[in-house]
Design goal:
The protein has about 450 residues and is an alpha/beta fold. The protein has 2 domains: about 230 residues, Rossmann fold (3-Layer(aba) Sandwich), CATH 3.40.50.2300; about 150 residues, Rossmann fold. About 40% of the residues lie in helices and about 15% in strands. It has a 7-stranded mixed beta sheet, sandwiched between helices. A 5-stranded parallel beta sheet has the order 2-1-3-4-5. Strands 11-12 form a two-stranded antiparallel sheet. Strand 3, helix 5 and strand 4 form a beta-alpha-beta unit. Helix 3 packs across helix 13, helix 4 runs parallel beside helix 5 and helix 9 packs across helix 10. The radius of gyration is 21 Å and the shape is globular. The two termini are about 40 Å apart.
Length: about 450
């Protein structure tokens, strides 16, 4: 892979993971979780307060019983029940990019492994059968991705968790052999559209359509500029955003593309500013967040800015400073209050704290942990004797309004997000930064409905 292609691929991964992986803001920006909320509809303010995150006691079973995992904890179970070491393990594969010089995400598999260890040590695995996680590293290459898919087919693995695979070859190989690919961070067409793929996220597509809803339907703006790196899914997402805005009656929508590898964003911001938009959608992540904050401030673009959730990370906001970030809006994929948000989040932090491997609990690992827990609920319902690729696929496809760990309920009928048939729960939440505190703007946004209405 040439240096330029490698850099471009890395930049694409950063943007796509930024729209998904880091959308659950885990470091307090200000205030406490749910402060000022109504206690039910999730319209509270403040990020989840992680200064004291975790279950109130060391009893993780009690914590799990109040969470989305409640169906897996019998009412009469008061002590941890370990899986039977002598039973045949149920192997779950996982495809991820790790230990590479660029675009390495070991926290995805580390957090899944923490979840597996918790389930085996305290919930008895699957009817006493221990779960074994086999992680295959793509080495950030198309050949490595293909090799991972082939390895799991040859080993007879019945289900594979997603991590990050920027090439998607493994998914295609698994699909050809009827093996379901579950969760992770959908950064390829294969992850978004393959019939064997099941995703609990809206990806970059969900972010853009949530922005369009707020700007076009709620605020009733007349003009929007969308700034994005010109590559594959990012370009497609920007076009979806334009189509949705126009269907809402927004008269002027300008797409402003730039090379995915750019030293700064002054030029595209200047182009966007020339049309005097009412709102600007910025599809950048990681270092691109700071570049966007700087460029918009330098140009003096007077428009309501929307950024992907990764840009709400505390280090990024602190470096940019309040003068450049006040009033900015971001997408996230979890309510700030209401529902099972607090019990699920408490359990997550406690499990990762007890069984994790020293990685920061926030960030991309939240998505892979959610994926494993949702899969575990399905496997547990099937029972140890009913676990094969066909039954798991059928069970996933049959899910209707099923509870999702740390997320919106999900339905895997292939009809939730237009042509993006793999998305089971693309719904989004928007938040706004005001006075150093994130405030939730309304309830869940059904981006699938927005896509359908846009045609």
């Amino acid at each position: 892979m040439t240096r330029s292609v490698l850099a471009g691929a890395m930049a694409v991964v950063l943007v796509l993971t930024g729209a998904v992986a880091c959308t659950e803001s885990r470091e307090p920006v200000g205030g406490e979780a749910g402060s000022g909320g109504d206690g039910g509809n999730g319209a509270g303010s403040g990020t989840l307060d992680t200064s004291a995150a975790g279950c109130e006691t060391d009893d993780l079973l009690a914590c799990a019983r109040s969470s989305t995992l409640a169906p897996t904890v019998p009412d009469d179970q008061t002590e941890p029940v370990a899986a039977d070491d002598g039973a045949e393990p149920f192997v779950i594969g996982m495809v991820n990019q790790e230990n590479s010089p660029v675009a390495s995400y070991p926290e995805l598999s580390v957090n899944v492994r923490a979840g597996v260890d918790f389930v085996n040590a305290e919930l008895g695995g699957i009817d006493g059968r221990p779960i074994e996680l086999e992680v295959c590293n793509t080495d950030f290459s198309a050949e490595g991705s293909t090799a991972c898919g082939q390895r799991f087919v040859q080993d007879g693995v019945t289900v594979v968790l997603g991590g990050i695979d920027v090439f998607g070859n493994a998914i295609e190989t698994l699909d050809a052999n009827g093996i379901p690919y579950v969760g992770g961070i959908p950064v390829t067409a294969a992850a978004s559209r393959s019939p064997n793929s099941f995703q609990w996220s809206g990806g970059i597509y969900g972010a853009v359509l949530a922005f369009a809803h707020q700007a076009g339907e709620v605020d009733g703006v007349d003009s929007v500029a969308i700034i994005y790196g010109d590559f594959g899914p990012i370009t497609e997402a920007a076009q979806f955003g334009k189509q949705a805005l126009e269907a809402m009656g927004v008269a002027d929508v300008e797409l402003v593309s730039h090379p995915v590898v750019a030293p700064d964003l002054m030029a595209p911001v200047q182009v966007a500013a020339a049309s005097s938009p009412d709102a600007v959608f910025v599809l950048e992540a990681d270092s691109g967040c700071g570049l966007a904050f700087d460029a918009i401030a330098s140009v003096g673009l007077d428009a309501q800015p929307y950024y992907v959730g990764a840009c709400a990370a505390t280090p990024i906001l602190d470096e940019a400073g309040p003068a450049k970030t006040e009033g900015a809006r971001f997408n996230i994929e979890q309510e700030l209050s209401g529902g099972n948000v607090v019990p699920d989040t408490d359990l997550y932090f406690s499990v990762v704290g007890r069984y994790g491997d020293g990685f920061e609990a926030g960030g991309a690992g939240t998505v892979s942990f959610r994926s494993f827990m949702n899969l575990y609920l399905v496997l547990s319902a099937l029972g140890a004797d009913g676990l094969d690729s066909a039954s798991i696929t059928a069970a996933l496809r049959a899910q209707r309004d099923a509870p999702s760990f740390m997320g919106h309920s999900y339905t895997c009928d292939g009809r939730q997000f237009g042509t993006l048939t793999a998305f089971c729960s693309p719904q989004q939440i928007l938040v706004e930064l005001s006075g150093g505190e994130l405030t939730q703007l309304g309830d869940w946004i059904d981006v699938g409905e927005i896509m359908a209405e846009a045609g």
